[in-house]
Design brief:
single chain; 328 residues; alpha/beta; Rossmann fold; N-(1-d-carboxylethyl)-l-norvaline Dehydrogenase, domain 2; 4-stranded mixed sheet; 13 helices; 40% helix; binds NADPH dihydro-nicotinamide-adenine-dinucleotide phosphate; binds ketopantoate; 2-dehydropantoate 2-reductase; KPR-Related; ApbA
Length: 328
């Protein structure tokens, strides 16, 4: 199977290395010093168990890669619209495009049951280029559980004990394409189960980002530090409760309540020392995913008439800080 990792940075680098090590034909679309280092010296991923070193084909010109069986997009959300034309040369007649980006996905209502079906989210796809030019029937939904950081060009630190890429068709059907992508991950050390309701999984993951990503980005603290801080904990809990209300009003059933979720963070965990990706972006002054992770949830809340005072305050501060840094 030919798999392209599009936007092979921290998460995508980990995925590419593990797929390549397992013998999958992997192409990485990357850029800048990270790409130059991979082309010159190969890709290195330090996992908890070992050091993977591979030399997959890596380029910033997708025309050099040719049609793929699947594209796994591990770009940050703000980079998606500008990348859509670059995906065209990678598309064969049946190529699926897996969007493995944190937050509310731009395709959220594609395949959704009921009157909201096929509604577009202009915050996440302002000109509609993703929806129109891809086109939408290519989309497979996805959620990432894998903590990673680029620690030097060409070198990724993977801190997770379990690496998971949850997959699901937006309409919940079990298609040959989603099963084939899942199977390609066999033996890679990345679990890739297929879900019938990928939107519930999107929300469960979103509950792991909605409070922590902006609060860590604002404070520079780790997730357990915030969860254990008497002044910050109630704000995080408030955000989780507000997010949970929004998800439920949208018809989702989540795995647990906000308080349990917050307490689980304080249990000794394998990714406690991980810098959430939004904190990495604030520190490195890279475009932030505030729209997908925070403001899209606020949009839903406003439409549904749900008050989100904690989320609103943190969102306003995070947007203000991001503007001051020139990244929003
Ligand atoms: N890092 C983590 O631990 C986790 C991240 N996530 C989510 O996964 C997604 C990816 O995050 P992460 O891996 O951290 O992000 P990274 O920024 O490390 O990776 C994205 C890469 O894509 C590159 N890129 C951007 N645009 C293009 C383009 N047009 N062509 C080629 N390359 C391009 C970026 O380069 P450049 O830097 O030059 O822009 C960067 O190297 C995000 O949605 C994030 O929220 C989810 C769970 C954990
Ligand atoms: C922090 C983590 C790993 C999960 O909450 C994440 O998704 C991120 O870094 O954005």
């Amino acid at each position: 199977m030919r798999i392209c990792i599009y936007g092979a940075g921290a998460v995508g680098g980990n995925f590419a290395a593990r797929l390549a090590k397992a013998g999958i034909d992997v192409t990485m679309i990357a850029r800048g010093p990270h790409l130059e280092a991979i082309q010159a010296r190969g890709l290195t991923v330090q996992t908890r168990e070992d050091r993977i070193h591979v030399r997959p084909f890596a380029t910033d010109d997708p025309r050099r890669a040719g049609p793929q069986d699947a594209i796994i997009v591990t770009l940050k959300a703000p980079a998606l619209p500008a990348a859509v034309d670059g995906m065209a040369p990678l598309l064969g007649p049946d190529t699926a495009v897996v969007f493995a980006t944190n937050g509310v996905p731009w395709w959220y209502f594609h395949g959704h049951p009921g009157p909201q079906a096929e509604r577009r989210l202009t915050r996440l796809d302002p000109q509609g280029v993703l929806w129109d030019r891809l086109p939408i029937s290519r989309v497979v939904g996805s959620v990432i559980y894998s903590a990673n950081e680029i620690v030097a060009p060409g070198v990724v630190d993977n801190k997770s004990v379990r690496n998971r890429l949850l997959l699901g068709e937006p309409d919940g059907s079990r298609t040959a394409r989603v099963e084939a992508i899942s199977k390609a991950f066999d033996g890679t050390g990345i679990e890739a189960p297929v879900f019938d309701d990928i939107r519930a999984q999107v929300w469960i993951k979103l509950m792991g980002n909605l409070a922590w990503n902006p609060m860590c980005a604002l404070t520079g603290l780790s997730i357990p530090d915030i969860a254990g801080d008497p002044a910050l904990r109630p704000i995080a809990l408030g955000i989780l409760q507000e997010g949970q209300r929004v998800a439920e009003a949208l018809g989702l059933t989540l795995d647990t309540d906000a308080e349990t979720r917050l307490n689980n963070i304080l249990k000794p965990g394998p990714t406690g020392g991980h810098k959430p990706s939004m904190l990495q972006d604030f520190e490195l002054k890279r475009p932030t995913e505030l729209d997908a992770i925070v403001l899209a949830v606020q949009d839903f809340a406003r439409e549904l008439g749900i008050a989100t005072p904690n989320l609103d305050s943190v969102a306003a501060l995070a947007v203000g800080r991001a503007k001051a840094l020139g990244i929003y």
